[in-house]
Amino acid sequence: VELALPPYSMLAASSVKDIPSFAGVINTFSVLNILALGAGVLVVVVMVMYLQARQRAQVVAYALSRRMGLRDASYRRSLVLELGGMLGTSYLVGVVLSLVASLFVVPVLDPLSTIPPEPLFTFPAIVVIAAALALVAVSWVGGWLTNRRARGSNLAEVMRLAE
């Protein structure tokens, strides 16, 4: 059987990482990882700012809903669903856009395009599932904290400041 390509000596990953074309790809993904961490931190900061900006309205809504017979668990559930819907929608948009972008970018990042095999695209299932679980946890904690703060707020003071 004749091989399509002649066999060459094996290279270790430590020797390949110093090749400029490979180093560029490695550095690109390192920067993307840092950007992803920054985006995650930014999402949490924006969510906290959103909850703080809505705190007065939430206290009034909490007081009125309690007056009409809504239980704490139901109010907390509505807060968790609000946060989960907001974060879940942005999560789905981010996953879809990143997968579409990666389908276009992965073939271009091949440092040695003349040597087979073609770059492989693998779906990062573990990362996607971990991010979804983190989203659920953040939504639940955010709803719980917001409900707790609304219960502990003085409605008369909030209404006086709203004027």
Word description of this protein:
By secondary structure, this protein is mainly α. It is built from six helices and no strands. Helix 3 packs across helix 6 (155-162).
Approximate shape:
elongated
Percentage of residues assigned to helices: over 70%
* SSE series: HHHHHH
Strand content: under 5%
Unreliable parts: none
Give the radius of gyration: 25 Å
Structural class: mainly alpha
How would the blueprint of this fold be written?
Elements lengths: L12 H4 L3 H34 L1 H13 L4 H34 L19 H28 L2 H8 L1
Helix pairs in contact: 3-5, 3-6, 4-5
In short:
The protein is built from six helices and no strands. The chain is mainly α and 163 residues long.
Question: What keywords describe this structure?
Answer:
163 residues, mainly alpha, elongated
